[in-house]
Amino acid sequence: MALLSSLSSVTIKYSLFIFNLILVISGLVLFCLGIIIKGVYTQYERLLDDQYLSASSLLISAGILLFLFAFFGCCGAIKENRCMILMFSILLSAVFILELATSITGWVLSDKADALLDRTLNATMHEYENSTDLRQFWSTLQTKLECCGVHNYTDWYTVFPSDKLLPLSCCDIPYDVKVFNCSASSGPFLHKLPCKEQIGVLVENNAVTICAAAFSIIILQVENYLF
To answer: Where is the chain membrane-spanning (predicted)?
Structure first.
C-alpha cells in the first residue's frame, strides 16, 4: 500500500513537472511570435491603429508571464512545495485571462483591417506630393511588395491628373534603359497587384496568428487542468 502511494506521488510530481515544462516552452513560443508580429506591424504602423501594436505587445506579455509562472511551477513540482504550486495556479489564472483578451483582440483586429487600410492608404496617397516622408514610404512599399496604388495603378491619376505618369516604384526599372517613365503602358514592368491587398494579407494573417496562438495555449491549459 505504501509502495502504491509512493508511486502515485511520484507520478503526480512528474506529471505536474511535464505539464509546466510544456507551458514554459509555450511561453517562449508566444514571446517569439509576438516579437515577429510586432516587427511586421511596426513596418506599417503609419497605416495601422495603435491596437495592432498593442495586440502584439499583449502576446509578448502573455508569453513572458507564462514562461515565468510555468518555470515557477516546475520548481514547485520538483521540490514538492505545495505553497509554490498553489501560487503558480493562481498566477496562471491571471495569464489565462490575458491570453483570452489577446485572442479576442486578434480576432476583432483581423475583421477590421480591410476598412482601416482602405482609409489610411488613400489618406497617405493624397498627401504624397506634400510630404517627403510619405513619398519615401510609398516608394518603399510599392518596391518591396511589388504593388501599385491602393486598388490598382489608376489610383495615382488622382495625384497626377495631368500627365498620367506613375511613381517609378510602380515599375521594375529595366537595367538597359537610361531614361524610363513608369506609366500604364509600361507593360510587363508595371506592378499589377494592389497594395491594399498585399498589406491586408500580412496584417490579417498576423492578427489571425495572434488569435490562434493565444487560443491554442488556452486550450492546452484547459486540457491539462481537466487531466
So the answer is: 12-37, 57-78, 85-109
CA dihedral over 210, 214, 220, 226, signed as positive or negative? negative
Which residues make Cβ contacts (< 8 Å) with residue 57, sequence separation at least 6?
34, 38
Minimal CA–CA distance to 154: which of 191, 188, 198, 127? 191
**E strand map for 93-226:** none
Domain contains 212: no
Q: Are 68 and 128 in a shared domain?
A: no
Please state the pTM of the whole predicted model. 0.78
Residue 194 near residue 156, CB atoms below 8 Å: no
| Residues, the chain | 227
**Burial of residue 83, with CB atoms counted within 10 A of its CB: 0-12 exposed, 13-18 middle, 19 or more buried:** exposed
44 lies in the same domain as 127: no
Q: Which residues of the chain have pLDDT under 70?
A: 1-14, 80-82, 84-85, 88, 162, 176-179, 223-227
Alpha-carbon span 189 to 183, nearest angstrom:
9
